[in-house]
Structure formats: structure tokens, C-alpha cells
Amino acid sequence: MERISTGAAKLDKLLGGGFPAGYNFVIAGKNDTDKSTLVHVLISNYIKSGGKCLYILTNRDPKNLKDEFEDAGIDYKKISKKLEILDCFSWKAGDKDSVNIKGLTNLSIQLEKLREKLGKKNTMEVFDTASDFFINSRSDLVIQFLESSCARVLKSGAIAIFIVDSGAQSEKDLAALESITQGTIEIENKGEANILRVSKLIGLKHDNKWVKYKIGKGKLVFG
After folding, report:
1. Most exposed of 70, 94, 122, 178 (fewest Cβ within 10 Å)?
2. For the whole model, what pTM was predicted?
């Protein structure tokens, strides 16, 4: 199976050689684990390796995204041309140009337009967060919507990441999401340190031990 480097040798090793092409990943943790910052590094590494990213942003103002990337030590200008952002946040403040995630049919249409623009190969899709969909719509409709996205990733050999806030949705909803994805990375705080593990990787050998990491100068540093 083709593997796609995460840009971090230690994480590649935990995954058994990098992201398996076509896999959908849940990245789960509490609000204080700063999951999005970790994913920003993964996005940056993916784009620097020649890929593109479709970033579906539901929980923060996209106007702040440049600062968030640069606070993590990432040169936003260098990656922005290959980063397509779908604003699914600003509707909460009444912005009619933003995509309301309660309208999953319209959202699917907007996603398809951006997918066609970016092309299906060498594209990472990031849903930040998947939890917001469960908060704003019926669980069965959310799973149906996300399952369609997962199927496209499997077929194209791309990568998708669904960020999940632990406790924001029911255990049943989280289990349903994990049933349609192929990998899970868990993040926790341990004192002043962040730790992560690859808790699921369907059909493939991987290392599921917890490891410490930090983010510095746009890189994941383990140890």
C-alpha cells in the first residue's frame, strides 16, 4: 500500500510508514489539547511535499487562520496558494456568504466545486471540526454526509482528517464516525506535555504506544 509521509519521522513510524493513501483519520482529544495546531503542521508538511489541502473550517473565524499557522511557526504565504478554505463558521454571525453546515445538501455542492478545482489526487481534506456537524444536524444525516466524503477519499487515494472534540458528541455518534473511518489518533495532555497515540489503523500493523510531542518552528518534535 502506498504511504504518504506526515513530515514527522516518529509519527510515520507509529503509523507503520506514514499515512496510508485513501485512509480517513479521526484526530480526537479534549479542547485543551490543541488538535488544530497539530493538524496545521500536518497540512503544511503535506503541501510542502507537493500536495493540496481542502480545509473545512467550522469552529473558528477564517480571518484568524493566517495568524494561527504563523503562531505555530508556519510560513502561511508559502502554503496558502495550495490551501483552499471553505468557511463554514461565519454563518453563525449572520454572514450570508458563509456555508451553513445545517444545510448538508448545499454544503455537498460547495465541496464538490472545490474538489473539482483542486483535483482528486494529492489532496488532503480536513474537517475542523467534525463535532460541529453532530451539534447542528441529525446524527444519521451527518454520518451519511461524512460517509460520502470518506468513500471519495478511499477511491481517490487521498487523505482526510476529521478533528473531534471529545465529549462534544455522544459516544454513539463518535463510534459511528469511527466505523466509517480507517484510522484514529488520540491526543491528551499529561501535565505540561502533549501525548498522542495511533489507537486504530484498520488492516495494518502500527505502534499504539503513547508518545510525547511538542510543536516548534512548524515541526512536530517527539521525545
Report:
1. 94
2. 0.97
